[in-house]
Amino acid sequence: MIQRTQSLLLALVVIAMGVVISSPIWEKSSAALNQKVVLTAKALEHAQGTTTVSSSTIYIAILAGLAALIAAFSISQYKKRVLQMSLGALNSAVLAGVLGASFFNVFKEGIPLFEPENQGNYALGFYAGVFALLANMIANRLIRRDEMLVRSADRMR
């Protein structure tokens, strides 16, 4: 039953993780110093004038891809609600890891590069990660509600 609400929410998690991988997560710039820092799921790039220094953050992309795969697999497990709830809990942990890794890179590596008083701005990739976490949480609640409904119907027979 792909048309169930929780299946649609899990599909939105897959789409949101694609946005996290392809869009900037955080950025900070200074016109006075001619510097810019951009955090994506693949790299933290610090542009200073004409030179650009990049450090790899591929683990954010790997976690986001893993979250998308878990959500996609969970959609196909609609007949096994207990397994689907377990996959949802695992996916919540992976999504929290994506956001945690993003925060770590922003606060420990991005902000101290220049003008520490300038915190920078979160971009579309960050908000897509937050949306994915909320959509996954709501999908888990709906799956649990379906399981409780089925169990209560079994008791009535």
Automatic annotation (TrEMBL):
<feature type="transmembrane region" description="Helical">
    <location>
        <begin position="7"/>
        <end position="26"/>
    </location>
</feature>
<feature type="transmembrane region" description="Helical">
    <location>
        <begin position="58"/>
        <end position="75"/>
    </location>
</feature>
<keyword id="KW-1133">Transmembrane helix</keyword>
<dbReference type="InterPro" id="IPR025635">
    <property type="entry name" value="DUF4293"/>
</dbReference>
<protein>
    <submittedName>
        <fullName>DUF4293 domain-containing protein</fullName>
    </submittedName>
</protein>
<feature type="transmembrane region" description="Helical">
    <location>
        <begin position="124"/>
        <end position="143"/>
    </location>
</feature>
<keyword id="KW-0472">Membrane</keyword>
<dbReference type="Pfam" id="PF14126">
    <property type="entry name" value="DUF4293"/>
</dbReference>
<feature type="transmembrane region" description="Helical">
    <location>
        <begin position="87"/>
        <end position="104"/>
    </location>
</feature>
<keyword id="KW-0812">Transmembrane</keyword>
